[in-house]
Amino acid sequence: AGSGARADMRTEISTAAAFVTRPLRAAGGGGEEQLRCFRECLQEAMREHYKHHWFPLVPSKGSGYRCIRINHKMDPLIGKAAGMIGLSHERLFQLLPSELTLWVDPFEVSYRIGEDGSICVLYESPQPGGKAAKQLESRTSCKEEWRIGRSSPSKSYNMMTVSS
């Protein structure tokens, strides 16, 4: 029965790992085989890290714990996966944004580049049995904490999509 909860996070984790892998591929940060290994190692590290911190019934619970962060320090999960393919932290900092926050929550994966950037949703899925209003509430969890002390109104982050 324990594996059911783990299977639930598969889409969210693969979305997040693919997102982190994309700039590496674009910048020639490794061969296709290396990048596949990086993505799989990152997914495995995330699965392991989130195993007891995934609450589909309360998606915002544990949001800070599942937050992947690059902020002049490399996120340990990304660093671990990069180490598996021999990418140094220095090289990662060249390839990835220097300020990146990635939230991996049940039913939603979103990110922000820069401290004051817009929050963009990568993946969103309706919550089973959830009410739309409840979903909007849960969206303020970890993301709201980052806004404390900001001058911009907190409503400015509704839904933004990015086209590449």
UniProtKB/TrEMBL annotation:
SUPFAM superfamilies: BTG domain-like. One of its GO terms (biological process) is negative regulation of cell population proliferation. SMART domains: btg1 (SM00099). Gene3D superfamilies: Anti-proliferative protein, N-terminal domain. Residues 96-115 form the Anti-proliferative protein domain. It comes from the Eukaryota. InterPro entries: Anti_prolifrtn, BTG, BTG-like_sf. Transmembrane segments: none annotated. GO terms for cellular component: cytoplasm; nucleus. Belongs to the BTG family. PANTHER family: ANTI-PROLIFERATIVE PROTEIN DOMAIN-CONTAINING PROTEIN, B-CELL TRANSLOCATION GENE. This is BTG1 protein. The gene is Btg1.
